[in-house]
Amino acid sequence: MNLTTNGFQRNLPSSLGNMEMIEFLDISHNSFHGKLPRSFLKGCDSLIVLKLSHKKLSEEVFPEASNFFSILELSMDNNLFTGKIGRGLQSLRSLIMLDISNNNLSGVIPSWFDQLQDLHSLQISNNLLEGEVPISLFNMSSLQLLALSANSLSGDLPQAISGYGALKVLLLRDNNLSGVIPDTLLGKNIIVLDLRNNRLSGNIPEFINTQYIRILLLRGNNLTGSIPRRLCAVRSIHLLDLANNKLNGSIPSCLRNASLGLGRGGYIRRLFIIITFFLWEHLSVHFSNLCSCKMGLLSIMS
């Protein structure tokens, strides 16, 4: 059932729980508000896809267990949910995609997420979460997209990680992460790594195991030293942003044929397009304290 983008208002009707055979329900982009009815969480046990995005739903997210044992995709982003991430989500063992981003969720990221072994995509960006990123998230065998940007997460990035599981997209921008970037952070499958606007320090690591990285965003940290020449060997890279760090030295000559992509069309505002479609083909190098050299098409902006 698709009821998206209508003018529905008021609370979600408790009668939703009577639709025991429904498998797909999308009521996004309406004006429903209030909390999820308990009858709804206990009914609808055939649901496979549930989309409740862009509404005004509030209170806690799944504070208790539901009967959504078959659900594969759950989208509850862009609401007004508050409190901790509910333990009711822990029972959704079939989940492949969970999006609870753009809410007012607080507390820490639960360690039990690693029990959702079929989870491919976990999006919790733009909330009020704090504490460290659980190391268990990086060891999940199926997780390919992990989005934790724009929270108040702190602490060091995990060091003792081997390969970072199946991760392809890791988004951690706009947090309070500190320490050095581990050499092991970029597993062999990583395509997008976004660590912008944290408090990371030390040198840019060599990223020895990287094969497929397309987008590497390290802007707005406290990185020092020079650009590692090993980046020259990463031929798949499309976008590199090292702006607003404390780098020095010269730009490797291997970048002489790169063209500047930073700022064209406002890439920061449209980064979701890059991540989704990988359409950008420009290498962005924009930072201070580097030798301003003429190298083919490469432009350096302060």
Describe what you observe in this structure:
- The protein is mainly β and 302 residues long.
- It has a single domain (14-277), classed as Leucine-rich repeat, LRR (right-handed beta-alpha superhelix) (Alpha-Beta Horseshoe), CATH 3.80.10.
- It has two helices and 20 strands.
- It has helices at 38-42, 271-277, and strands at 24-26, 33-34, 49-51, 56-61, 73-75, 80-85, 97-99, 104-107, 121-123, 128-131, 145-147, 152-156, 169-171, 176-180, 192-194, 199-203, 215-217, 222-225, 239-241, 246-247.
- The protein has a ten-stranded parallel β-sheet with strand order 1-3-5-7-9-11-13-15-17-19, with no helix packed on it. The chain has a ten-stranded parallel β-sheet with strand order 2-4-6-8-10-12-14-16-18-20, with no helix packed on it.
- The longest helix is centred in the C-terminal third of the chain and has 7 residues, at 271-277.
